[in-house]
Amino acid sequence: MTVNDLLLTGGRPWVPGRPAAAADILIRDGRIETIGPGLSAPDADTLDLAGALVFPGLVDTHCHLDKTLFGAPWTPNTGGRTLTGRIANGEGRRAELGIPSAEYAGNLLGEMIRRGTAHVRSHIDIDPEIGLRGVEAVRAAAARHAGRVDVELVAFPQGGLITRPGTAELLEAALADGVQVVGGLDPAGYDRDPVAHLDVIFGLAEKYGAKVDIHLHDAGSLGAWQFGLIIERTRATGLSGRVAISHAYAMGALPADEQRRIADDLAEAGVAMVTCAVGDAPVVPLRVMHEASAALALGNDGIRDLWTPYGDGDMLRRINTVAFRDRLLADAEIELALAAGTYGGARVLGLERYGLEPGAPADLFAVDAETPAAAVVSVPPRRLVLQRGRIVVRDGTTAQPD
Fold first, then answer.
1. How far is it, in rounded angstroms, from Cα 275 to Cα 169?
2. What's the rounded Cα separation, in Å, for the pair 125 and 228?
3. ∠ CA(341), CA(239), CA(241), 5° rounding?
4. Which neighbouring-strand residues pair with 273?
5. pLDDT tens digits for 241-258?
6. Which residues make Cβ contacts (< 8 Å) with residue 150, sequence separation at least 6?
7. Pairing state of beta strands 181-185 and 58-63?
8. Which is nearest to 365 in space by CA: 8, 3, 46?
9. Stated pTM of the model
């Protein structure tokens, strides 16, 4: 639908740490102009939200659009349960299944948009066999939904970096071609050379002004040791606010005092964590990160791909899963997960204007729920979804794009 001036009345906008009180939202030219009670705009179209809660657009800070089979015929999972087995299976079946696919990635993006996601960070496999085809496919999928979602790309060495000759050069080619983030994968546990691995990643980030996002599955003391290495590199390179550690499984299983020490170090160095609540892997502790003011974001990770047959792209459902897995029980605790899936993701992506505030893009969704915590627990249908001021969903019906 086209962008029209729009007045949303009778809603209850949510901002972390504040009660969701009744207020109207005036939107002009795709941006929020004013929020407050009793607004009037005779020249604008008016929608009565009848007490619905209003949230800012969801932020999926970790997914893999290039791997998805969303919309394809059912594909039984054959990846097994080991990291190396799933990597090999994923690479071995790409050609057979026609991935990376702009069509499948576009299908998934469309579903994410309809469920209220406004920003996505997608890791894209880069290796000598696939080259930059994943980048091309995801860019084509994002172009299909231009103006309705922002997609940030990560050049990701899924099959190894130091152990895979030619991959470093391809990562550099991706960054030179405009990819915004350089990724890494288990510098010690998988690539077996953490110093060399981080030399390449941080060197490329400095050269191209890129951000850094490292998958870190390594558990226990090995994972915790690498947190320290990444924090040290971030300080040394001056990349504060531009580095994220994804999964960070070790963090969720460490003793409480060690968790707090690391969270304090992360906050001081400007290093974020991204948790996805994958399988039975530990979740980064939300309360600890919040108390330390350390940046934390959430993501869906794999969705209907060769790693997992599960997922629907709904970030509100993922927020629910993270809250459940981290045993967040009080309303204020549950809202920490909601904050991580919205404002936390915006912080990690470095969005300059975000949220329910004047001047921000009108990316928002509304649901019928008594409280924000109730919305997380019940994962209600989206009553209204706006992307850049355009109506995407209204009363459960998807609007046709322009």
1. 29
2. 26
3. 25
4. 245, 296
5. 999 999 999 999 999 999
6. 118, 119, 120
7. unpaired
8. 8
9. 0.97
State the Cα–Cα distance between residues 190 and 226, nearest whole angstrom: 12
CB atoms near residue 25 (< 10 Å): 25
Both tokens of 223, joined, read: 């994972």
Determine contact, residues 285/258, Cβ cutoff 8 Å: no
Task: Please calculate the CA angle 240-246-247 and round it to the nearest 5 degrees.
Answer: 145
Considering just the CA atoms, what is the radius of gyration of the chain in Å? Answer: 21
Q: Distance between CA atoms of 263 and 293, rounded to whole angstroms?
A: 8
Alpha-carbon distance values, 110 to 49, 52, 71 (Å): 24, 24, 11
In tens, the pLDDT along 280-335 reads 999 999 999 999 999 999 999 999 999 999 999 999 999 999 999 999 999 999 99
Contact 228, 269 (CB under 8 A): no
Q: Specify the pLDDT at position 395.
A: 85
Phi-psi region of 104 (alpha: psi -120 to 50; beta: other; left: phi over 0): alpha
For residue 237, the Cα-to-chain-centroid distance in whole angstroms is: 25
Q: How many CB atoms lie within 10 A of CB 164?
A: 17
Determine the distance from the C-alpha atom of residue 87 to the mean position of all C-alpha atoms in its chain, rounded to a whole number: 21
Q: What is the 3-state secondary structure (H, E, C) of the chain?
A: CCCCCEEEEEEEECCCCCCCCCEEEEEECCEEEEEECCCCCCCCEEEECCCCEEEECEEEEEECHHHCCCCCCCCCCCCCCCHHHHHHHHHHCHHHHCCCCHHHHHHHHHHHHHCCEEEEEEEEECECCCECHHHHHHHHHHHHCCCCCEEEEEEECCCCCCCCCCHHHHHHHHHHCCCCEEEEECCCCCCCCHHHHHHHHHHHHHHHCCEEEEECCCCHHHHHHHHHHHHHHHHHHCCCCCEEEECCHHHHHCCHHHHHHHHHHHHHHCEEEEECCCCCCCCCCHHHHHHCCCCEEECCECCCCCCCCCCCCCHHHHHHHHHHHCCCCCHHHHHHHHHHHHHHHHHHHCCCCCCCCCCCECCEEEECCCCHHHHHHHCCCCCEEEECCEEEEECCEECCCC
| The pLDDT of residue 402 is above 70 | no
Averaged pLDDT for residues 348-375 = 97
Q: What distance in Å separates the CA atoms of residue 229 and residue 282, rounded to the nearest whole number? A: 21
At 41, list the tokens.
């705009």
Question: Model confidence over 123-138: pLDDT tens digits?
Answer: 999 999 999 999 999 9
Query: How is residue 233 written in tokens?
Result: 């590199």
